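Blinded run. Sample ID left blank on purpose so nobody reads anything into the name before looking at the predicted structure. Input follows.
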Amino acid sequence: MMNFLIEHWLEIFAVITGLLYVYLEIKQNKIMWIVGFVSSLVFVYVLFEAKIYANMGIYVYYVLISVYGYWKWMGDKIDTSSSAHRLPVTGYRLPILTLVVISLLLSAIIGYVLANFTDSPVPYYDGLVAGFSAVATWMLTQKIIQHWYFWIGINIFCVPLYASQGLYFTAFMFLVYFIMSIIGLKEWKKDLQKML
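Blinded prediction complete.
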């Protein structure tokens, strides 16, 4: 057992910081972007080793978008002690089907690239998760409440993907993410109601 934990210590670290990230997301704490940056860097390596390339690529995207998300959530005010600068929770103004179609197109492109140019054991599955995750994360940077619906689906989809590649801690993390996404949706809905 100890050898297994030692072999998987990086994955365990990434899982712990990943869970902290989602907890901070639920609480709408901008520090989540810093925690997500660190967690994502570690997951890039873990997923490269597991040959889950599209999700490795999505974690590279997470590293980059963490910088943008932190900046976006900070707002333009210098006084960070004030809550007045806080980006409000919003709903997506256009039909959500638009983002679903964009996610599906992105997923198909990623899946095709993986199937034809890598040794990924699950190219289209990996591509589907990556495409929807990219769009959901962009929605999060804008504090669009519907991102939680995307994450509920993505997270439950990820459990068998990671388990099939022997990343059991990560599969467990996504099971917990699934539950946390439902909680996050409820919490953000309360905030949205206060603004109406």
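Unblinding after everyone has recorded impressions. The chain has a mean pLDDT of 90.
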